[in-house]
Amino acid sequence: MSPLTPASPDLRPYIDELERFADGQMTPEEQDAFELRLEQDEALTDAHAAYEQLTADLRWAAGHDTLRLRLQSLDERMDQRGTALARAHSLAQRRQRRWATWSILGAVVLVLAAGAAWYFSRPNTARPARSWEAYYQPDPGPAVTTGLLHSRPLLSEALDQYQAGHYPAALHSLGRVSPANVGADTLLYLRGLILLREGQGNAAQLYFRRVGETDSTGELVRRARYHLGMAYWQAQELAPALATLRAVAADSLNPYRASARRAVAAGVLEPR
Predict the structure, then answer these.
(1) 132-149 burial by CB neighbour count: b if 16+ within 10 A, else e?
(2) What predicted TM-score, i.e. pTM, was given to this entire model?
(3) What are the start-end ranges of the H helices in the chain?
(4) Fold for the domain defined by 130-266
(5) Nearest C-alpha neighbor of 136 from the set 272, 36, 258, 270
(6) Are the C-beta atoms of residues 141 and 193 closer than 8 Å to each other?
(7) 218-247 burial: b if 16+ Cβ within 10 Å, else e
């Protein structure tokens, strides 16, 4: 390097942001804020230019094994994102076709809902059902919106598979989602939901308990506590199931309070 050649900018303070920006991993809000900083922050602008030059140099020198592997990793990350987006769009189109079919059956669903409401509100003179499924209130998870499809395609894919009842595929897709983009608690909760619906109550308990260890007052923790009680019940651990559902029934802020109170009041978890 000539003594007159200016020193290269230090990329280390900005490398994570530059990589996320280059890979398209930022949300629209983050991208807008980053582009505004590029216009105002001279050091960031120089780092970005140096990063672009570095990427170009890496591609020029791709004949070397170490550099070729680095470029291959970058390309694979972009290909994975593109594939996930294409798959998510395909799933969205199938979901739209399903909604068209469901609209035809809307009248039937209303009749069935009215019949179910009458059935559960009538005086129950028969022996109550003892299966956990008779009292379980499922959580369908977040809605897969267009914004979610574009910002978090892997999460959208996992949610669509879960809502369609494809639980092994949903677990596989969820395993590819980064906790940095979604949140570790949310991933734990969703994995517990999928395992519970798949009939793996013992395995689901671990994930619901880990959500409860993070924050004892949040809504996600309240939701996890209810599903933990149902996971105990599914695994035929009736004593902890009863204790957990009693705690949910006593929590006025828990969205599953009514479902838990119905299960506790039925007495099906009491020792025979």
Answers:
(1) beebbeebebeebeeeeb
(2) 0.54
(3) 15-23, 28-40, 42-60, 65-104, 106-121, 146-151, 153-163, 167-174, 179-182, 184-197, 201-212, 219-234, 238-249, 257-266
(4) 1.25.40
(5) 258
(6) yes
(7) eebbbbbbbbbbbbbbbbebbebbbebbbb
Domain residue ranges of the chain, discontinuous segments joined by +: 15-75, 130-266
Question: What's the rounded Cα separation, in Å, for the pair 67 and 32?
Answer: 31
Closest CA to 24 of 67, 74, 70: 74
Distance of CA 262 to the CA centre of its chain: 29
259 closest CA partner among 271, 272, 237, 244:
244
Q: What confidence tens digit (pLDDT) does each residue in 168-204 have?
A: 999 999 899 888 888 888 899 999 999 999 999 999 9
At a CB cut-off of 8 Å and minimum separation 6, what does 256 contact? 137, 222, 223, 226, 248
How big is the chain, counted in residues?
272
Three-state SS sequence of 71-105: HHHHHHHHHHHHHHHHHHHHHHHHHHHHHHHHHHC
Separation of alpha carbons 11 and 7, rounded Å: 12
pLDDT in tens, 92-145: 788 777 776 766 777 566 777 777 676 666 554 445 567 899 999 999 988 888
Q: Which residue has the tokens 């009458």?
A: 118
